[in-house]
Design goal:
The structure holds 2 protein chains of 2 kinds. By secondary structure, chain A is of the alpha/beta class. In chain A, about 30% of the residues lie in helices and about 25% in strands. Chain A has helices spanning about 135-140, 155-165, 190-200, 225-240, 250-265, 275-285, 315-320, 330-335, 365-390, 395-415, 425-435, 445-455, 455-459; strands at about 5, 10-15, 15-20, 30-35, 40-50, 50-55, 70-75, 80, 90, 105-110, 115, 120, 125-130, 140, 150, 170, 180-185, 205-215, 240-250, 290, 295-305, 325-330, 340-350. In chain A, helix 9 crosses helix 10 and helix 9 packs across helix 11 (about 425-435). Chain B is of the alpha+beta class. Helix content of chain B is about 35%, strand content about 25%. The longest helix of chain B is centred in the C-terminal third of the chain and has 25 residues, at about 445-470. Chain B is globular. The chains are: A alpha/beta, B alpha+beta.
Chain lengths: ~450, ~575
């Protein structure tokens, strides 16, 4: 069917082109536009009927006029996949960006992807040690999980993501991850930071980069993560790799979605974002996981910046409903000069329970984590009270908890950008810090564990 | 006009066909691949269809075939232990047919049509039967007898009925007028199944969760809403209910939720033992899993599929509990389809009929006298996921208008690791007046009074806390400090419950009653000891009290608790003499 060129554009609006009188065009079909100056643009069919076809143009509609020629390519968007992808840098539409050759395809995969049958999934249960205490102890990452970083502008989420990419490994194993990195609308500076870090550590050879920068077409961002996840699925489920997908910044992706919704004059949902954004995000996030009978896995680390540091904004809100927890970066801690400024209180890993304990991490992990969390939460709350009544009004227990919250931030949270703490080191550190509190106040620890691990008893 | 037409337009999951005669909610087959869809709007000779599978690659001009049936579920032996997608295709069969990704255009029977079941008639030739009458039994799982009923719109005199092994499509009984009755029947999901009368509920659904059974009970046949922001434990609460509630049949709908969470349920349930029967939980469970990335129209259908299955078991005289997690995703599916239809939106882009759809759904719950004269119930428990945790949004409000029980999950409590994170100050249940008699007769004569005392203390604590925020707890008079201690005991010992602890996860209702009494006994003992000169700290720190508190994580607590309470009272009294 491909080949016939139509010159029947009626309207051009935002990223959309409307045309009429065509052959039957498939929903989702890929379209090529030839401009009068010879430029070629690509697009996809969003709505099709006997009378009218709506095409979304990935590169934006600049210079598109009613004389542009439109060719329907007879197929939905596919990415050529092969192991040659590893080590390559591609642009947001999947074309080489590193000056290398075109990808030679083993096969072509539909980028929309299909849902994994819940019956075929394997429950994630392999503990990933990130070497960051706050994550390993309190919001433990599991292989096959999707755990986003909720950050905000001006915070070091990129450093944290890179540190995780560098250090992440299974306990007692050297098995490495393939990193699939997907940039959506980030600045060239941020991109260079990622790339040079990956180059410096040699990780680039084991990575695939899909890059759409801030000055690249916004609409292209709709397909960039789909390309990245299609590559990830191929590497994980066909080639048995463990894949870590980092994508940044989801906020730019959602804004691109809103832009298309607005151009189509759709009824907007909250804050102008389309009503189907939940489903749309789920189609990305749910592509994480492990499948029974396959060796590989996909673990996702989406990064999003919360507009106005507001966790109830639709982007973090809808993400939180889909992902299996979240790591929340705190401006307050960052301003105190603490790296990584992870606020463990609103952070959560839903799959943590399945991967910690005697067989995987250590028998005390769950209770230590609960106790650290509870003591820190109470200590933080007391700070508010102290501001009103002064420290002298506190009883002994409260004073200890208040002091503990400061130690927690200074010694437990704080670590350097290349400090890779093993889970044993992290848990031992917890015990050391908790020994600043009288044992009788450590109600979440049982006597057996105290006898086994408390520094007083170990000496 | 014929049954066949052509596609005119495709926009996401919404397809318009022309040249086809259609009635509302007819099921149609769309395109060359025969994708399943449902007619949801008719304009002249155009029918608007919502398609239950991905529509990429479909073109205008492809055929559309009207099956002239409405969306129906198959009902019969083989339902239990199944895991379905939103339109009752078994996920296991889908895996066998298309691998681990769900692609499209695959049809699958709801259960094994070839498998034979042993049918034992309970009616005999010459009996007058009408719709809903039970004519035979099949032992479907170890614990559940599947009662074979006459389909609701059939009646007559039995001409012949046979016992023996049959598959679900073979005739087991014939009526005088020639009507043949099979073990399997079909029912359209959007119509409630008929019954004789609806009763007022008078029995609680015992869930084993203290805060629910004790403070905010749900009746069998009632409806409850669980709104809460993400991370507040909606899914854990729903799963606990599915595991431990004393319903005979559980229908669990994972509607637009996480794939890994569904997998966890699928992995876990076959290994869990029902505390009420001692048999695997899976034996009484039907699951529907339509995760967030599965087609949105099938998500819209999934809650109807689930509740129709629930009603079918209700008609056999069972108490059925249905969990829908989450109804917000169902509402969003409606919104998505509505906006593709370019309907005039109501609040926040939801269709104007949102609240009536929610009400219709919950109205299908209830305790009824079935067509065969038995007592059966469907209890509906819907999770709601309000954006940003703000329950002023339309789905929460539409739900609260209709349900009688509100279990409000609270992000603040979850953050303090207080689980279940149900806020005791804003949650409510309107059932206690109709359930109190049951509690008095079956658990303890003073049960309602104890409940009032416990919730009263929590209320007072909330008021005192406001003062403490300003002046610190040491500034309060000593009797109020005691009240705070007692309230803390209620929160930490009674309301908190560890859903992952093998012992604490399920708490027998008799034990709940004794634990609540233990708190009040502590209060009385402490009050009189302090009246006689003991210090609050001495009273609170008696060793027997710590033993009482920790005891709930140990096996056999119900046998020891009375002795432990007595030991605590003795030690508290002893503090008076030391002074």
């Amino acid at each position: 069917m491909a080949g016939k060129e139509y010159r029947t554009i009626t309207d051009v609006k935002g990223p959309l082109v409307f045309l009429n009188k065509t052959e039957p065009v498939a929903y989702g079909e890929i379209v090529s536009l030839r401009l009068s100056n010879g430029d070629i643009k690509n697009g996809q069919v969003l709505d099709t009927s006997d009378d009218m076809v709506v095409v979304q143009v990935f590169e934006g509609t600049a210079k598109v006029d009613r004389q542009a020629g439109v060719t329907f390519l007879g197929d939905v968007f596919k990415l050529p996949v092969s192991t040659d992808l590893v080590g390559r840098i591609l642009d947001g539409a999947g074309r080489p960006r590193d000056g290398g050759p075109e990808i030679v395809a083993d096969e072509k995969a539909d980028i929309i992807g299909a849902a994994i049958n819940p019956y075929s999934r394997q429950s994630p249960h392999d503990f990933i040690q990130t070497g960051i205490s706050a994550i390993d102890c309190c919001t433990t990452l599991v292989r096959g999980q999707k755990l986003p970083i909720f950050s905000a502008s001006g915070l070091p989420h990129n450093d944290i993501a890179l540190q995780i990419a560098r250090q992440a490994k299974l306990k007692d194993s050297d098995e490495e991850f393939i990193v699939v990195f997907c940039a959506m609308g980030i600045t060239a500076e941020e991109y260079n930071f990622f790339r040079s870090d990956l180059e410096r550590t040699g990780a680039l050879e084991n990575a695939v980069l899909f890059v759409n920068l801030a000055d690249d077409p916004a609409v292209e961002r709709i397909i960039t993560p789909r390309l990245a996840l299609t590559a990830a699925e191929y590497l994980a489920f066909e080639q048995d790799y463990h894949v870590l997908v980092i994508y940044t910044d989801m906020t730019n992706y959602c804004d691109a979605l809103r832009q298309i919704g607005a151009a189509r004059e759709e009824v907007p949902g909250r804050r102008g974002y389309p009503g189907y954004m939940y489903t749309d995000l789920a189609m990305l996030y749910e592509r994480a996981g492990i499948v029974k009978g396959k060796k590989g896995s996909i673990t996702q680390f989406p990064i999003l910046t919360m507009p106005g540091d507001d966790i109830t904004h639709p982007i973090p809100d809808l993400s939180g409903y889909i992902t299996e927890g979240q790591i929340v970066i705190s401006r307050e801690l960052h301003q105190q000069g603490i790296y990584p400024p992870i606020n463990v209180l609103p952070s959560l890993s839903r799959l943590m329970g399945s991967c910690i304990g005697e067989k995987t991490t250590r028998d005390d992990h769950k209770k230590v984590s609960d106790q650290m969390y509870a003591a820190y939460a109470q200590g933080r709350e007391l700070r508010g009270l102290v501001a009103i009544v002064g420290e002298d009004a506190l009883n002994e227990r409260d004073k200890q908890l208040l002091d503990f919250s400061a130690i927690f931030e200074d010694r437990f949270l704080r670590q350097s950008r290349d400090e890779d703490r093993s889970i044993d080191e992290t848990l031992n550190l917890c015990w050391e810090l908790m020994s600043n509190i009288d044992t009788k106040y450590l109600v979440r620890l049982d006597e057996e564990l105290i006898a086994k691990y408390h520094p007083e008893n170990r000496a | 006009m014929s049954n066949e037409g052509q596609i005119y337009r495709i926009s996401g999951p919404v397809v318009t066909a022309k040249g086809m005669s259609a009635a509302m909610y007819d099921v149609v087959r769309v395109g060359d691949e025969g994708l399943m869809g449902e007619v949801i709007e008719i304009h002249g000779d155009q029918s608007v269809i919502q398609v239950y599978e991905d529509t990429s690659g479909i073109r205008p001009g492809e055929p559309v075939l009207n099956t002239q049936e409405t969306l129906s579920v198959a009902l019969g032996p083989g339902l239990l232990t199944q895991i379905y997608d939103g339109i009752q295709r078994p996920l296991q069969t889908l895996e066998e047919q298309m691998g681990f990704f769900i692609t499209r255009g695959v049809d699958a029977d709801a259960f094994d049509m070839e498998k034979t079941w042993t049918f034992e008639p309970v009616a005999s030739a010459g009996d007058e039967v009408s719709g809903g009458n039970v004519i035979g039994h099949v032992q479907e799982t170890e614990t559940i007898v599947h009662k074979i009923m006459v389909p609701p719109n059939v009646s007559g005199t039995i001409k012949s009925i046979e016992s023996g092994d049959f598959n679900v499509t073979q005739t087991v009984a014939t009526l005088e007028d020639g009507t043949e009755i099979q073990m399997m029947q079909k029912w359209p999901v959007r119509s409630p199944r008929p019954f004789q009368t609806k009763y007022a509920p008078d029995t609680p659904l015992i869930t084993g969760m203290r805060i629910l059974d004790f403070l905010f009970p749900l009746a069998k046949g009632g409806a409850a809403g669980i709104p809460g922001p993400f991370g507040s434990g909606k899914t854990v609460t729903q799963q606990s209910l599915a595991k431990y509630s004393d319903a005979q049949i559980v229908v669990y709908i994972g509607c637009g939720e996480r794939g890994n969470e569904m997998t966890e349920v699928l992995d876990e349930f076959p290994h869990l033992i029902d505390p009420n029967t001692g048999k695997p939980l899976m034996n009484r469970t039907v699951m529907i899993a339509n995760t967030s990335n599965m087609p949105v129209a099938a998500r819209e259908a999934s809650v109807y599929t689930g509740i129709t299955i629930a009603e079918y078991f209700r008609d056999m005289g069972y108490d059925v509990a249905l969990m829908a997690d989450s109804t917000s995703r169902w509402a969003e599916a409606m919104r998505e389809i509505s906006s593709r239809l370019e309907e005039m939106p109501g609040e926040e882009g939801y269709p104007a009929y949102l609240s009536s759809r929610i009400a219709e759904f919950y109205e299908r719950a209830g305790r009824v006298n079935t067509l065969s004269g038995e007592d059966g119930s469907v209890t509906a428990i819907g999770a709601v996921s309000p954006p940003g945790g703000d329950i002023s949004e339309p789905v929460s409000q539409g739900t609260l208008r209709i349900v009688k029980v509100f279990w409000g999950l609270d992000a603040g409590l979850a953050r303090q690791r207080h689980f279940p994170a149900i806020n005791w100050l804003n949650s409510y249940s309107l059932y206690p007046p109709s359930l109190d008699q049951w509690y008095r007769d079956n658990i303890g004569q003073d049960f309602p009074e104890i409940r009032t005392a416990i919730s009263g203390l929590l209320q007072i604590e909330a008021e005192l806390q406001e003062i403490v925020q300003l002046v610190g707890s040491d500034a309060l008079p000593v009797d109020q400090q005691l009240t705070l201690e007692v309230a803390r005991m209620i929160r930490e010992y009674f309301l908190q419950q560890n859903g992952f602890d093998p012992i604490d996860a399920y708490c027998d209702i008799n034990l709940q009653y004794r634990m609540a009494k233990a708190v009040l006994t502590f209060q009385d003992a402490a009050k009189s000891a302090m009246g006689a000169g003991s210090a609050l700290s001495d009273v609170v720190n008696v060793p027997a009290r710590s033993a009482l508190l920790r005891g709930r994580f140990e096996e056999g607590y119900i046998d020891r608790i009375d002795d432990m309470v007595k030991a605590m009272v003795d030690e508290i009294e002893a503090t008076v003499e030391e002074n």
